[in-house]
Amino acid sequence: MHPRIEDYALIGDLQTAALVGRDGSIDWLCLPRFDSPACFAALIGGRDNGHWALAPRSGEARAARAYRGDSLILDTVWETPEGSVRVTDFMPQRDRMPDVVRVVTGLRGRVEMHSALRLRFDYGRVVPWVRATEGCRVAIAGRVSVWLRTPSRGTTYGKDLSTRTDFTVAAGERTAFVLTWHPSHEPRPARIDPFQALADSTDDWHAWSARCRYDGPYRAAVIRSLITLKALTYAPTGGIVAAPTTSLPEEPGGVRNWDYRYCWLRDASLTLNSLISAGYLDEAGAWRDWLLRAVAGVPDDLQIMYGLGGERRLPEAEVPWLSGYEGSVPVRIGNAAVEQRQLDVYGEVIDSFHVARTAGMPAEAHAWGIQRALVDYLESTWREPDEGIWEIRGPRRHFVHSKVMAWVAADRAVQLLEGHPKLGGNVDRWRAMRDEVHREVCARGYDAERGTFTQSYGSTELDAATLLIPRVGFLPGDDPRVVSTVDTVRRELSRDGLVRRYSAEGQSVDGLPGGEGTFLVCSFWLADALLLTGRRAESRRLFERLLALRNDVGLLSEEYDPVTGRQLGNFPQAFSHIGLVGTAFALHHGRGAD
User: Fold this and answer.
1) What is the DSSP letter of 220?
2) Model confidence over 115-149: pLDDT tens digits?
3) Which sign, positive or negative, has the C-alpha torsion 314, 316, 321, 326?
4) Residue 316, exposed/middle/buried by CB under 10 A (0-12, 13-18, 19+)?
5) First vs last Cα of the chain: how many Å apart?
6) Contact assessment for residue 166 and residue 112, using Cβ atoms and an 8 Å cutoff
7) pTM (predicted TM-score)
8) DSSP string covering 70-133, please?
9) Where do runs of H (alpha helix) occur along 215-337?
């Protein structure tokens, strides 16, 4: 049996991340980057596909865990009949090579501990050759090597193609494991001091968290989500991955299993809003600069997502030797949605630059030239159908949200030129485009009989993305069409009060069998829309319910199944935490009476 998705906690070094289960097993880790092949793939396979267990030998051990203050350092306290220990898991921000550090501290009595390290390179497929050298165990397969330093007082041995260590920790004692990835053709990696690394990492995270300037309600939840977004940042480039995992299912046993270890353009404006609002201008600037590099080129070649460094080719393939999370196959690496046409991303890119400029961030000299080219291109293409925000793998449609975001692109460009006419651009033409898009969406995307904006022109299906209409300024929150749309989406797309992405079932829209859970970011959008339509108390109640869905260490996946009470989809999900931060800020500064 796989642990539940919410049974995992996240550690990372701003270039990759690992998932640690409540049972003390690291079941997912890609090295050296988020999108590298996994060396621990038990999360989407079995224990034979790689994991690292560290826990007391006692079968009666009980665990409680928490992050150390406002950090990404995980403390798990184990209680046994013989005593108690604390296992501290973290990944120090690297100088060159990635390290996973596991510090064991005796708290009471004497506790016998056991470590079982099973390395499997290339997503659980390759068994490395392991040998002892220079006081370490080194595992090598091809160009990859991993070095393991074990406690000197323990006994380390090989068994069942794994490296085992037995040791005892008494109250007041502490010892450490250090696992280091390294290219096999290079000299052995430099050793780090695990205890100094722990002290430095604690200080680094607490100093970073102290920079948060949000002082409203739900501050602890906001900071935990901001730490999670920071952990999903690839520091060398500033890109932010949607999630550190692949193929965690939207439906257990189903086929909706996707690779999210890449950077989506549509995350840009919402991520920038979150970082800027919280005072993290350096991170917002790095993300803005990544965006500039990624979208540079001819406008008709804009992709919806890119690799961590701006890579354009993300070919999708299946990994047949992995059994999937709870039998959810296929397991996929890469993402074929990179080839899709999604016109909304043009609006999201333009809006992200608008947000940055409005916040006072210095503009790059060439940024306006790129934006101008994008708006000019969108002017000639916004009337065409696309796959839409939800990456539909069915026929293209005239999605209402895509058209609304085309309006956003024109609107933000017009606002900029009206304030800075010397930048250059045809403001009259873009103003005319903005007005034409607005008229068409209101005429063709609104079902007057039902009183709601629909998913696409001429359809009867609903789409949670229409909840964003008041937030992006397309219509005000008190417009009767907005109020009616919010009520209709809430009534028809809700499942136990939480919101699904769209109303179509089966293969009618997305071309895929099966179903999915409620989409957490859509539920945050509903909370925002309730606030913008003057229902503050209802917005706050929904927000607090969503906070209660977080796991014990404050993390959210992509979806939630209210029937089984389980989180679903890739984990933790940046979009969900962006939604949490955005709604908290909106409630703090928004209007509407309780």
Assistant:
1) H
2) 999 999 999 999 999 999 888 999 999 999 999 99
3) positive
4) middle
5) 45
6) yes
7) 0.96
8) SSS-EEEEEEETTEEEEEEEE-PPPSSS-EEEEEEEEEEEEEEEEEEEE--HHHHTBPPEEEEE
9) 219-231, 267-277, 281-295
